[in-house]
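Table S2 (text version). Query chain:
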Amino acid sequence: MEPDIPAPEDMERYTPRPNPGTATAARRIVDEAQRSDPSLPPATSTTAYRPLAMYALWRMQALQASKTSVEMFLMTFEYIEEAFIHHPEAARSAMLDTACEAFIIKARAWEKKLRKSMLVEEKARYAWLSLGHPLRKTDGLAPGPWRTEVQGDPNGTEHTDDLVHPNSPRSPLWNAIRPGEDNGVAGPSRTEGDHSVQPQRPENATRHSSLKNPSGVARHMYAQATEIIVQGENLTSSEPMSTAERMNPSYLRQMLGRMTSRASRALLDPPAFPQPPHIRSNPRNEAVSNGSASEARYNQMPVPNSPTANSTPRRHGASAIWDSKALPIVPKTHLSSQSVILDADIGPALEAIEQDQSDLGWCTLSEKTHLMHIDVARKSSKPAIVKAWAHSEADVDSIFLAAMYLWDEFETSNNYDTLCKCIEKYTAALSLCSIGDRSATLNHLGSALYVRFGRTGDMADLVTSIKHHQEALLLRPLGNPYRSATLNNLGEALYTRFGQTGDMADLAASIQYYEEALPLHPIGHPFRPTTLNNIASVLYTRFGQTGDISDLISSIKHHQEALLFRPIDDPNRSMTLNNLGNALYERFKQTGDMADLVASMEYHQDALPLRPTGHPDRSMTLGNLGLVLYARFGQTGDMADLTASIRYLQEALPLRPTGHPDRSATLNNLGGALYIRFGQSGEVADLVASIEYHEEALSLRPKGHPDRSTTLNNLGTALYSRFGLASDMTYLLASIQYHQEALTLRPTGHPERSMTLNNLGISIYARFGQTSDMKDLGASIQHYQDALLLCPIGHPRRSVTLNNIGTALYARFRRTSDTADRKNSFQCYGEAAEHDLSPLADRLLASNNWIDSAVEQSDESLGNAYASAMDLLDRSLLLAASSMSDSHARLARGRFKDQRRAITEDATAYAIKNRQLNTAVEVFERGRALLFTQLGKYKTCLDDLETESSSLTNQFRTLSVALEASTLSDEAGMEGEASVGDQVGRRQKLAAAWERTLAEIRLLKGFENFLRVTPFSQLREAASDGPVVLVNISQYGSDAIIIHKTVEPVSIPLPDATPAAVEALVRTLNRTTTTRPEPYESDRILSNILQDIWRIIAQPIVSHLSTKLRLPLGSQIWWIPTSFACQLPLHAAGSYNPSGRNLADLFVSSYAPTISSLRRARAGYRPLKRASGPPILVVAQSAAQGAPPLPQVPHEVAVMRLLPGQVTIVEEDECTRDVVLGGMAKTAWAHFACHGKQHLTEPFKSHFLLHTPRESLTLLDIIKHGLPHAELAVLSACHSAAGDKSTPDEVIHLTAGMLFAGFRDVVGTMWAMTDEDGPMVAKEFYEHMFRNGLEQVDCRDSAKALVKAVRLLRRKRVPLERWINFVHYGI
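Corresponding structure-token output:
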């Protein structure tokens, strides 16, 4: 029994930063979408642009930055002009919009031309703020489009329709004018398992298309457009222009061009537009923006009380003035009823300020200008302004504005004292506010206190912040345009308090406020993605507390909708990708649906490039990717996933140094991944490191921390394993203690309670094993049963829980002999093994425990247990969808190797024992060469299926070809982790689709067993030319099965061929052939080995062949051994004494990796009568770089040159991989005379060494190339049939690879070959092959040709190890 994998804690999330859209962006998206996709419906009116843009947005992401400023300028006008012609009334408001945008676009073009002139920049923003926004009666200005700098754009280009918004910290108007709508809020965010909040930056409002006081706006807009042009021209002209020249309409038309002239004419006589019904009068201009917990959060621009002033528009010269009620933000004590606004008047004021004549400067400004000019002055001399306002402390507006500038200072300096002074000012202003003016002040003060709480952790600040937001909400009833902002801010603050206290009432209230805010941000509203994210985040958190899956489903739905509105270049896209990936990962944990896990990984992989090195959230995505890969490893067992997971987590840890709030999460997850790797490799250092990381994480998660239970669980599990190594009860008792504490923190309803119950049960069960206390055993069973109630059918942890119950019940049966416990134990094992939605590794563990218990009790369910285990082995290789090398690594080490064990051999032995020889042959074949067998399924003949369903045939063939190509791909050539991850993800999708298609095929009549176990009736076809001998070595009894074409299979007991005896022979053989002692000593050792092989394996088989089957001497037989017997030279077994006989003297021996490979090699073969003989390719490399020379290779080549027929020789520097593979594709026979090398740990990298190491021809190269004409290959090279010692049943070597690639016969060597044997063997071998002339050449003679060549070596009395080295594979 083993514990649950320590679960990675919930992954971190935080609320993304916004990127609102604009009318121009909508128009551009629609226009470009219609150009590229005619199916997109046309815009029937200007009001249709926005919804159409929402529909087209995802399709047009790559095109958003494809136009320049001028091109977009003209394109926008052309579209609006067409709308104006067909819809004059509807289009006039759009014309106003577009005219202002045209000014800004033009200014941006000049700005680039003039190297980003700050003057033009300021004037452009001024024009936008002053003119481009719709005005309300007392609200001032509404926001408009702004520019976002495109992240990752190598050319630094900008979106010309997205200008720098005044709410942006990059704008000089950041704190001067904060017009219009609410901006969404920072929503809750969770780090990996942490409930800490990292609120978002501002998400600002979009612009409305309505207009108040259009005449005044139009005139002022016209004048300011002139100012933009003049300022731009003055910077490039030596002579400034006069005022008259500036206002010349002809000049304006000339400068602004066709677009501006048309817009200007429309503006001079604009129609009246009604005020939107949802816009209501409010005494203060507000805008809500949120920063992170470590940054200032600016929720409202502090605005003084609106003055009472003359509302009559006035003109001064050529300049326009505003209705005073519509002025942006003007201190009431400094604005006279007859004030006029002159750009010329600001000069003296600025000069006075720059000379620090504060009083004079302030008076001049207050009387002669409005707040926009004040902002320009502030940028010139901020201290003077603050000092001037300090003279009016008793005035609420002055105090408010002073607080605003202190906030600005804090934003810049991040100075805590400045923040405190700012809060003091806001508090003072609040004390002076009347009831009607309090909401804005409350909102600002609440936000500032929230930020200070983030700095200090003082709960009093957070409580007071909530109180102020609650009071502000009461002052903003339904219909108030800023209600949604307060709802969002209040929801955020309550969520943060929940994270501190765990009070579910705060969480419920937070959800309520967010849900109320969502209808106020309908589809098309720029803040809808943020609100969706906030709701999704708090729902996700509530799911984590209650386990209500409906909350998780709703969270995923909201994140998916939010992602639709955040295109590739949206700076918040990475956040939405992150959050959606986390939610899908959590649903996978609940349901086991691999589609959710794959989708989660894809979203996190998409997020990583958006967070390059240096990005503040890179550590978050690294951690989340690590966790998802960790989880996928748990499903597939692919070590590449686990390795990548650890690498990502290790990269994330230094980005979260001591003091970082999320360090504990990364420590926890890295500790969990290292623990799993320990389980695979047994490397104690990984376990020790895991415990250290978990202990540090626990120290950072004191009592009361919401994720303490996770670390307690993981540390308890790691200590349990440490106990298993050291048998120190201290570790076990600590494990129990930690799990018990974790259980108290995971009450009924907690989604991870079942895991803790399981792990606590495991540790108590281990204590029972030490003390034999039946109370511990009973408690363990009770914990498991409680856990099972929380893991219904479909829960991914159901199998491991059932397995644990089965193990404990069987232990109790052994103590009490209660047969009910035994029966229930086997029932639990069977259900665990068959539960489809649990990880395959857990199911394999259960099937293995089922096998062990059933063997011990001789239970009748043993056959089903074996069948279940073998089914799971097949599926695990398919669904892992790894490369060949990675799949081999899984088979060769760790948990999978232990679970695979000797299942095939033991299941075969069980069938033999039950006299089910046909079944035994089928089982034997099913468990052989799993990797080659799976590849073989992709090459299955589909002719019969084609007649039944051509569509399924095509679909299956396409998937098979893609899977084969992907499985044979070389991941070493990929660049970066993402490339490997993408490839693995693609394989898994293909594998899942392949399996689904296979299931559909099996529903067809007559195809119920398609690609299932190959029936014996087909397997016996492999014995058409002689008997096939299966040698099965098992702990439950070793046997040989002889398959003959005319009689039923026969089993020959091999009682002395135990696994231990065979392994001992292999160890001695390997040591002798590696160290190569003196010839006499070598012959002595080898003859003893061959005698033992004869005695315990070969002699009983030869006796039956000779006496029972009466097989004639010299007949050919085929050996297919299992386990370590694969590495024995069975063909050379004998008594090796003068009176005895040896196998080589009786029969011609050949080998085959599997029965199916022999059957496939025989299929369709007919010797061709070729007048010129078979084409032969000779690959000769005597002097490969970095390898010892082979002086006998030229002599071997000389032998090959003398052969009759078509001989092509590629030698020395001609030997490159491409040349050799190209030649092999055209030839029938191939002869290699070169160095060969068996890769000990990665056998698919075994290779022939050609001219340079870079040009080596690997086993993987061979098997992935089709060889349509291949017949015979002679591998006169070292180790070409050596095999892999870690997975002998896989038969992975160059010789077997040649056979799988299409050759029907292959000659190879089992160990290092002596150079001088090459020419002798070649000469004798080919003389026999061509003995009957060119037209009678048959590759099936190759086995006897090799025997003849070897006899030549024996006659020359060469050492034994030289001639027994040569083997034949194939027909």
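Notes on Table S2: Residues 1079-1107 form the longest helix (29 residues). Residues 1-26, 43-392, 971-980 have pLDDT under 50 and may be disordered.
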